Amino acid sequence: MEQARIDKWLWAARFFKTRTAATQAVLGGRAHVNGVRVKPSHEVYAGDTVEVATRSERRTVDVVAIADKRGPAAVAAALYVETPESVSAREQAALERRLAAPASLGFGGRPTKLARRRLDALRRAHRKSR
Beta partners for 59? Predict the structure, then answer.
């Protein structure tokens, strides 16, 4: 196989869970081939550069092989090679997201029995002071 539709290739390479999601991404401008926005029917060849934006990640990959049918993850990973610049940018973005997370979000879920009793005591003391 020498060529495949971009939406089928993105689905086969496991960038998207469904072919419909891959088609919608291409229509929405989240996939570019060789720096150009394309339609879902655009043909992809080995040696092309594909830029894909999924959720908060942006990947730039070089197409190594062509497939239009979805297979195992190991086969899908062999369809492309991510550029070093893309890898470093993704790692940098992940580090920034981790450092930017507010510290106040770590409440730890449901309080323990001791913590609940202390909260109840604080509430009772607050009601009496009114």
Answer: 52
Interatomic CA distance for residues 101 and 111, integer angstroms: 22
The model's pLDDT over 8-29, given as tens digits with 9 standing for 90+, comes to 999 999 999 999 999 999 999 9
CA 48 to chain centre: 21
Q: Concatenated DSSP letters for 83-110? A: -HHHHHHHHHHHHHHHHHS-GGG---SS
Domains and CATH numbers, the chain: 3-98 (3.10.290.10)
What are the b/e assignments for 60-87, b being 16+ CB within 10 Å? bbebeebbeebeeeeebeebbeeeeebe
End-to-end CA distance of the chain: 78
The answer to whether 75 and 62 have CB atoms below 8 angstroms apart is: no
Please list the residues that pair with 50 across neighbouring strands: 33, 61
Residue 97: is it exposed, middle or buried by C-beta count within 10 angstroms (0-12/13-18/19+)? exposed
| Rounded percentage of the chain residues whose pLDDT exceeds 70 | 95
